[in-house]
Amino acid sequence: MSSGILCNDVHSRLNPVLVSRVLRPATTEEVAAILSDPEHARQPVSICGSRHAMGGQQFGEGTLLLDLKGLKEFGGIDRDHGLVEAGAGFTWPELIHELHSRQEGVSPVWSIRQKQTGADDLTLGGSLAANIHGRGLKMAPIIGDIEAFTLVDAAGRILRCSRSRNAELFRHAIGGYGCFGVITSVLLRLAPRLKVERLVEITTVDRLISTLEDRIADGSDYGDFQFSIDECSGDFLHRGVLSSYRPIEQSRSMEEAQELGADDWEELIHLAHTDRAKVFEVYSGHYLKTRGSLYWSDTHQLGVYLEDYHVHLDEKLGSEVATEMITELYVPRSQLAVFMARAAELLRPTGIPVIYGTVRLIEQDRESALAWARESFACVIFNLHTEHHDDGVARAADVFRRLIDLALSFDGSYFLTYHRWATREQVEQAYPGFRGFLRVKEKYDPAGRFQSEWWRHYRDLFAMP
Description:
Blueprint: E1 5-7, E2 17-19, E3 21-23, H1 28-36, E4 45-48, E5 64-67, E6 74-78, E7 83-87, H2 92-102, E8 110-111, H3 124-130, E9 146-152, E10 158-162, H4 167-173, E11 182-189, E12 191-192, E13 195-204, H5 205-217, E14 222-227, E15 239-247, H6 262-274, H7 276-289, E16 294-296, H8 309-317, E17 322-332, H9 336-347, E18 354-361, E19 377-387, H10 390-409, E20 413-414, H11 424-430, H12 434-444, H13 453-463
Helix pairs in contact: 5-9, 6-7, 9-10
Organism: Luteolibacter luteus
GO molecular function: FAD binding; oxidoreductase activity, acting on the CH-OH group of donors, oxygen as acceptor
Keywords: FAD, Flavoprotein
């Protein structure tokens, strides 16, 4: 590597990149000034927010890195239409706090519909770049929640993008991983903030879809299924905790629910690495105790995220340096049980532990150019323990490719966000429009101004004979 400023993602820690310089603009105009400044005209630009993505989207070797967490302009709430204009640097907790503070004493309170789960400190702009989704049971990816956004292109021009204005950019920049410009501000669709009740049961994956359909019919808007990760048990990837959330009478009084805190999560993470039979017992026991608890529809989507937890864990266990890597796979809902049974057969002999796993639902995305939700899929997330030596990374990469092949055998797909280990054939099968995506990138950015390790990888992969 050449000299520069070392950057890395904050979860897997497997993407060390030296950028040449980091700039932190605070307004759309500052972003435009940087991109139109002759001083930077010949230098490729990469874009980052909270640095959680694991596929190399936010950094490029030798690039000028724009850190956008300072983009926190707030354009106000349209209470008549349930919209808010917010800077792309807002994280989800910051945005929720701002929405609450601006609507104190009024009813209803408008707030977010969905955010990604697992971590809260992701920016609004980064969420658009990956076209994220949450635990909504009847929701498409976040493109469905976006009315418009402001984008600064490679020439420093400020463009407004929506379904009727710069529509091609709208479809490509959402889920475009920073390839088309800098998203600086977002007009986000909101929903009334509601009280919801948590419903909890232990069930099995063969009953999951029909149970979720019943929950949806009963009014539940959110839910997910945390499955057993004990590879030595017959319940592996089969039995799990199903939680869902349905609106209740808004007049009911709220009591503070007893949620898992940082110490609890630290214990669960330790057990997931040392006693995967017990971790399900502890986790399910907690959730069953919270059955009937009341929450708000926005803040129940927030959770505890322990940064750098693996550093302390490795020291405690005296083990190799490691982190968890994520893959997210999509399969037809009718095939979920068969897929999970075959995934269990695939994973058991690998010796690579599953540290966490969940199943959610997603509705079809009919809008984004690089749609991963080609139909209304079941989403399956695997967090795999990945040791950071060459053999450990190679073994994890091989397992992820085999899991992708398994999902593709069911006419499914996978999420591009988390790693770059898929083969070109897998990318083309999961994303038939990927070559067209790269061509549109060249159309809007012919000089390759916006670059990242993610884009460079796929540029070179698809240039192969």
